[in-house]
């Protein structure tokens, strides 16, 4: 029991360290490459950028991005507490605090971008760092806050891509930057950052969830199926078929596995039968035991129908069914 508790504590502590690392990457990409170029990105960092430059023009001093970001994060978390759960809120408070500290410290250190007179290069590098940082935080059950909270609420109820949801929410923030700067190039750069961050975030989050489907034809199909079951802990489905050229019956193995397990499947098959015929195809989604859980919100009338179908039949219904069978 102590071993289990110690293991859980270690995993939780490791997650918090990796979340902090991912958030640092995001804060560094934003503070050192994007913010000095006066490019407004999505999320609360973009909203904080707008507030900073608006207050700087109006009052001669700008409200720091970190202050606006942290206040808005606390407000969103208060609204989303019931939807996303206590654990997510705790980790997001941690992430929101860390990112505000990092941005608050790093932003004054970079009054000019690291690569001077290379706006597009700064935007690309900053977006890559931000996207990787967000994804890295998410796969360790963390969050940088902001529109991530909105995306997480949607992801809890459906299979909508997190990066895509962030894309929709952030477009309004970036578009409003044109009203402030009246420069179309700055707005375009903001959209470039948004697309890259969304793409990289999805790539990092879904990288370990991508699945492949194998079809394997071999005379040693039993040995291959047993080896895959024992070594990869993946199930195999045996399908009967017939080779049209030889007119002989054949056995085909159908195997689903994670993309990172594909090399292991190839090695197993090659070690048993070098002449096996193998096809491999990427699969958009695999749901069920051993893979992802299907998140589909059922309508109220569908739930009632399902409950009615699953209830035991009454004695009158059983008698009626027997009479129908006898007549048939």
Distance between the termini: 60 Å
Order of helices and strands: HHHHHHHHHEHEEHEHH
Structural class: alpha+beta
- What is the strand tally? 4
Q: Major sheet: order of its strands?
A: 2-3-1-4
Number of helices: 13
Radius of gyration: 27 Å
Low-confidence stretches: none
Q: What does the largest sheet look like? A: 4 strands, antiparallel
How large a portion of the residues is in β-strands, by DSSP E? 5-15%
Average pLDDT level: 79
Question: Globular, elongated, flat, extended or rod-shaped: what is the shape?
Answer: elongated
The proportion of residues forming helix, as a percent range, comes to 55-70%
Molecular structure report:
- There is one protein chain.
- This protein is of the alpha+beta class and 328 residues long.
- Helix content is 65%, strand content 10%.
- The protein has 13 helices and 4 strands.
- It has helices at residues 2-34, 43-59, 65-84, 86-106, 119-139, 147-157, 162-175, 177-181, 184-206, 221-232, 262-272, 300-310, 315-327, and strands spanning 211-217, 236-243, 248-258, 277-283.
- The chain has a 4-stranded antiparallel sheet with strand order 2-3-1-4, with helices on one face.
- A hairpin with a 4-residue loop joins strand 2 and strand 3.
- Helix 3 packs antiparallel against helix 4, helix 3 runs parallel beside helix 6 (147-157) and helix 7 (162-175) runs antiparallel to helix 9 (184-206).
- The longest helix is centred in the first third of the chain and has 33 residues, at 2-34.
- The radius of gyration is 27 Å and the shape is elongated.
């Amino acid at each position: 029991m102590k071993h289990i508790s110690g293991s859980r504590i270690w995993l939780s502590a490791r997650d918090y360290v990796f979340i902090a690392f991912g958030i640092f990457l995001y804060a560094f990409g934003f503070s050192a490459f994007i913010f000095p170029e006066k490019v407004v990105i999505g999320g609360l960092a973009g909203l904080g950028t707008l507030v900073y430059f608006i207050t700087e023009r109006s009052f001669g001093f700008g409200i720091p991005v970190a202050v606006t970001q942290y206040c808005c994060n606390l407000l969103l978390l208060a609204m989303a507490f019931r939807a996303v759960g206590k654990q997510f809120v705790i980790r997001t408070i941690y992430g929101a605090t860390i990112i505000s500290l990092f941005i608050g410290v790093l932003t004054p250190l970079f009054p000019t971008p690291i690569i001077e007179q290379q706006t597009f290069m700064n935007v690309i590098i900053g977006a890559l760092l931000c996207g990787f940082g967000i994804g890295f935080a998410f796969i360790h059950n963390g969050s940088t806050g902001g529109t991530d909270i909105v995306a997480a609420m949607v992801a809890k109820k459906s299979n909508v891509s997190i990066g895509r949801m962030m894309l929709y929410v952030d477009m309004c923030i970036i578009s409003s930057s044109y009203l402030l700067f009246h420069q179309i190039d700055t707005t375009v750069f903001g959209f470039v950052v948004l697309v890259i961050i969304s793409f990289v975030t999805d790539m990092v989050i879904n990288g370990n969830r991508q699945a492949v489907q194998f079809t394997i034809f071999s005379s040693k199909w039993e040995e291959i199926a047993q080896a895959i079951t024992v070594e990869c802990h993946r199930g195999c489905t045996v399908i009967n078929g017939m080779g049209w050229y030889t007119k002989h019956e054949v056995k085909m193995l159908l195997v689903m596995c994670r993309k990172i397990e594909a090399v292991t499947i190839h090695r197993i098959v090659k070690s048993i039968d070098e002449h096996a015929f193998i096809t491999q195809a990427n699969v958009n989604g695999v749901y069920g035991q051993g893979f992802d859980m299907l998140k589909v919100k059922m309508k109220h009338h569908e739930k009632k129908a399902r409950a009615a179908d699953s209830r035991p039949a009454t004695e009158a219904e059983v008698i009626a069914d027997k009479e129908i069978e006898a007549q048939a």
